[in-house]
Amino acid sequence: MTSRIRATAAMAACIATLVPAIPAMAEDSIKLTLATGIVPTVPTAWFVKDFIAPRLEKYSNGRISTNVQISGSLCSEHKCVEQAKLKQIDLGTVSGANIGAFGPAFDILNLPYIFKDDASADAIVNGWLGEELANKAAKELELHTLAVIPSFGFRNLDNNVREVKVPADLKGIKLRVTKTPIELALIQGWGGIPVPYDWATLYEGLQTKIVNGMYIPDAYVAAQRFYEVTPYITHTGGGLNTHIIFMSKDRYHALPDWAKDAINRTAKDLREVAFKIDIEWRERANADLKGKVKFYEPSPSELQLWYKGAVPAWVAVKGTYDPALASRVLREQGQQELISALQTAGAL
Prior knowledge:
Layout: H1 3-18, H2 21-28, E1 30-35, H3 43-59, E2 64-69, H4 78-85, E3 91-95, H5 118-125, H6 128-141, E4 143-154, E5 156-159, E6 174-177, H7 181-190, E7 193-196, H8 202-207, E8 213-216, H9 218-223, E9 232-234, E10 240-248, H10 249-254, H11 257-287, E11 294-296, H12 300-316, H13 323-332, H14 336-345
Parallel strand pairs: 1-2, 1-3, 6-7, 6-8, 9-11
Antiparallel strand pairs: 3-10, 4-10, 5-8, 5-9
Helix pairs in contact: 3-11, 7-12, 12-14
């Protein structure tokens, strides 16, 4: 063998030993940044920090490490979606309402009175509907959905002006709304004044009465100390408050199989326990509201007025949801009366 051949062989052997090491090292361990704008008194923050993060590490046998940022230290609501798309974070959360800023993929979740209780929502969201929404999010929003979880259950009306019993009592009251057209249409249909307003500064907005109230679950009033600035709560129900746990679709699919497997197993665990844990958290939070706010429970006839006032909201956003999917959700819960009202109005 000539010296030139020996040198070439030696160089090839050297390259052969070096080149495979680069992708192997790249896939040996991964650090993921997990971010949410939610504070520790709300279960979504706990799910990110104390449920998702440790399970990713466990199911990857320590190959995934996490940088967890909560309370808006990196992003809040729709900003988390933007940052995931820019690859500034790996996993984020956003409410089912505020994700509407990017498209209607999840808007069906926000339709008023589409879910009648937690048990029905759990079975449907974590069954066939969840699969439908994940497919829509991948196609329309370029997002990979880990889970749709409840966040303190169903929304109620809070305000700092007066006790509200029926929709007509909302006249002149400015209510903060999220970035979904459904909530804006609902508040209008009920007779209030919808005001898009950032969640991060909502307390100050209520304190200065830039807005007079909001449509959120009771437990958020306790967790965020909103009872200090909104003393009246009306139990209208209607809208299930959800949070989407997501990744950029490109980021997820670029991961090695072992990392995707850890994420998938974590997501499965999350979907199985989310409603149960959320109910436990909200019951503790709601207990803290005793004596701090004045609750109003509408009578059956008054509640029918809230239902009736919600129908125009469905009509106003027709085209943003699949009527066949919505009909199936309502039908599986036996909500025939609402189906009939919506069909009469042309919403289904």
